Amino acid sequence: MFDLPNDDTLYDALLARDATYDGRAYVGVSSTGIFCRLTCPARKPKRENCRFYADVASCISAGFRPCKRCHPLDPAAQSDPTIGKLLAALDARPAYRWSEPDVMRMGLDSSTVRRAFKRHFGRTFLEMARSRRLASGFTALSAGSVIDAQLDAGFDSPSAFRAAFAKLMGAAPGTLSRDALLRADHLKTPLGDMIAVCDKRALHLLEFADRKALPTEMQKLRKAAKGSVGIGRFETHDQIASELDAFFAKRCDSFTTSLALHGTAFTREVWKTLQTIPAGETRSYSAIAASMGAPQSIRAVARANGANQIAIVIPCHRVIGADGSLTGYGGGLWRKQQIIDLERHHAKRRLP
To answer: Bridge-partner residues for 284, per DSSP?
Structure first.
């Protein structure tokens, strides 16, 4: 899918436990017969005993067996037992107001948890839990009153709920109309809660609810719609929800929901180019710029890629670094890795 950097670069990444190669490069150790992630906490092997591979299948074909410490067959974030324990607890009690004392009562060190979640998800566990609670309130708000939504989200203080919701939507919950031109609703996916903003005909925004750029993107949509952004659901929401369900269930990876693209002509051209990358494959920023006939516009391509506000459907996750590293992703590198892996499954399924 991409060319690995040279072995010296990868060995340096192994010594540094560089997370940018997680899911993109693996090391097979000839002296032990084991293959690992480059972030494996085990003692580092000698340079002459290392063989580097782009995927798990290549490691297994070469006769290596998976490491029992870094679990290279598992998604990167879920292989961390601390993360796995807390995510399971959050799934079991999504409306609970988690705190650092709760984390400590589970026998976990709060600073270790904070670093682990920041490394894998770009935010702390407590921030993730707060976003999950807010998503619960989002769903309740579309069907009931503000106070019902506040209680459903587990916020004791009405002002705290209003402030958190206003930060996300760019407006206080009580000011949002249910007959607005654009309406926002909450979707659940295996990779986390998402917010979809649609009108009667098209999808305008699809983002993970914990993405830091989401409030800014919502403000831009409010400006474009002259403030007519509210809470509710159109048939467009049902369509994209159904297509996402099929995608994550490994049944189908085609998206036919109409898209409304908000951006400059160049930005929209980049987004359309992203959609031409076959599922299961990746491209570098420079390759995309070259394919557009603008080889000097690598930075502009990167900015347009980062400005994408329709996650998964417009596949900005298919863009990686020239050296094969995952590079940044607004939804978190762990999600990027899993989406790419899922698309590879779909691509293999289509092979004769």
So the answer is: 320
Q: How far apart are CA 181 and CA 200, in angstroms?
A: 8
Q: Is the pTM of this model over 0.85?
A: no
Q: Is 59 annotated as a binding residue?
A: no
- 6 half-sphere exposure, CB direction, 13 A CA radius: 1
- Identical fold for domains 75-176 and 265-350, yes or no, is yes
**Strands annotated E in 4-159:** 26-29, 34-37, 50-53, 65-66
Which residues participate in catalysis according to the annotation?
36, 316
Top-level class of domain 75-176: mainly alpha
C-alpha–C-alpha distance, residues 167 and 150, integer Å:
15
Q: What is the pLDDT of residues 48-104, one digit of tens each?
A: 999 999 877 678 767 788 888 888 866 666 667 788 788 888 878 877 888 899 999
- CATH H-level superfamily of 7-66: DNA Methylphosphotriester Repair Domain (3.40.10.10)
> Tokens 């698309």 — which residue?
343
Is 67 annotated among the ligand-binding residues? yes
User: What size, in residues, is the chain?
Assistant: 352
Domain limits, the chain: 7-66, 75-176, 265-350
CATH 1.20.120.1200 fits 265-350, yes or no: no
Q: Which of 91-100, 141-150, 195-204, 293-302 has the lowest mean pLDDT?
A: 141-150
Q: Are strands 182-189 and 65-66 parallel, antiparallel or unpaired?
A: unpaired
